[in-house]
Please model this.
Amino acid sequence: MCGIVGYIGHQQAYPIIINGLKRLEYRGYDSAGISLLNREPNIFKCSGKVKDLENLAHGNDLSGNIGIGHTRWATHGEPNDINAHPHISMNGHFIAVHNGIIENYARLKKRLSDRGYKFSTETDTEVLVNLIEYIYLKGKVTAEMAVRLALTKVEGAYGLVVISADEPDRLIAARNSSPLVIGIGEREYFIASDATPIVEYTKSVIYLNDDDVAIISSNELTLKTIGNDKLEPKIHKLNLEIGEIDKNGYEHFMLKEIFEQPRSILDTFRGRVNPKLDEVHLGGLYNVMDSLVNAKRIIIIGCGTSWHAGIVGEYLIEDLARIPVEVEYASEFRYRNPVLYKDDIVIAISQSGETADTLAAIKLAKQAGAMVLGICNVVGSSIPRETHAGVYTHAGPEIGVASTKAFTAQVTVLSMMAILLGKKRNIITSEQYTALIKELYEIPGKIERILGLNDEFKRISELYKDSTNFLYLGRGYCFPVALEGALKLKEISYIHAEGYPAAEMKHGPIALIDEKMPVIVISPKDNSYDKIVSNIQEIKARKGIVIAVISEGDTVIKAMADHVLEIPETDVVFSALLTVVPLQLLSYHIAVMRGCNVDQPRNLAKSVTVE
Ligand code: G6P
Model:
């Protein structure tokens, strides 16, 4: 949520920052801005995309070796030119870009106003930059000290980068709950909200921790705590290639990521499962395996699509390993005073590893003494660092705001965990274990076959692109897929859609069914097949339009439904991995046909670092 880029070194800062902002645009895209320190600092900012910022800046003197940039997802104040970052302090001594929320900003603003400060924006960031300036002028301290002292007065979350015209040889970066990564080059440093703007320049990075402050000149980086204790920076090697963050010829990142799923799922289980081995190997869980195997209860937390993967995880773990599982929205869990026991295992699922509510729920669970495991995609992000142990999904960077390959990778990890626990707890036999692993190996090839039907899915999308409501129904493992299918459609095409357990249809949604509303029924040949056939009959009896996701060769539903999306058969426990794919493609095509910005849907952001 909001993207920050900073540069200091021997190169021109402008192109590096603009390129970086384009890479981070998936984090927020309602306004953008840049400030370059030359002799005098300049600021260009406007509502709209990074492209609009480039047009605005064009023709001006854009030279300078130090600069900061920002792409915004508005929290305080509407997305207009004035509220766009960077923000400058009233007397012009400091310029800042900020990601996060300063929760006590109203109180601080009042105090600063009482001392003569005037504000021209509605943002919390302007309050922060003025607080830094006030401390700097009043205390006659260095820029660095002013930043550190100001941050001791601040409640809330920030990823912050500050420059000062008075000390034009340095950048000051600080983090609390909102991520910042620093790339180390040859006499140059790159700062960004995540590694994507950095990877083309260097693979050596430092991840800032909460309460860290970095003081960066072109040939030196000093790391401290806010309280001025010196820290030794830990340098990590980025395992990310530039090709992974390009569209590679696809029209949109979302389409590329849907088509990547055969490979991303393979990457998720590569080296971890093998039909010849008698156990799944999840190295990240090695030290916690005894606790996991003997767990009395598992609580899965997550938001959005990750929460949907969590429900699939609940079904998998209860089915194959017979451990009771509860699934909670992280935002509810953290505030509703949940009962937690010391022997509970909490599993936090997150693509970005930065979702604010999930992070807060993890902290709560840790305080209660529970062991917390993470299932995350972004290596080095906050959640893997905050949890006791975990498993990376290895799906590769996901840039499209609507999550696709991250979901199937999360479900793949949960499948491996459930199979492993089932085996270790003697719930599944060696034969069942081998059969499941063999079937997991078949999944990428089966998804490849589904992707081969893309043109057919596109044809069906054309017929329903103007519908105003969709209902998605599924049972068992396909219930969370119904939720996920509906979410995908809402997110990117702005069509109202609801996901429901098919049997619950009779308790409300059936009243909505008429000859205009498409009902997507996820009905592969599994243990609820007969029941869902009855549900389809109930819909048809009310003249509803049925688009059914069916197993290849199913002539019964084919004869009843208006359209079918065929998928290969698989073991019921892996149904979600296949059935979700046609739904992702359906949403994608409908959104493109409606002229929506698929990769950057309105009001959404990829990484939700505010609660
Ligand atoms: C946002 C994204 C969703 C994502 C959710 C949770 O809403 O747009 O795609 O599912 O956050 O994010 P996480 O990174 O924790 O999986």
Summary: Residues 303-306, 350-352, 355, 358, 401, 403, 604, 606, 608 surround 6-O-phosphono-alpha-D-glucopyranose (CB under 6 Å). The first strand starts at residue 3 and ends at 8. The mean pLDDT is 93. The chain has 19 helices and 25 strands.
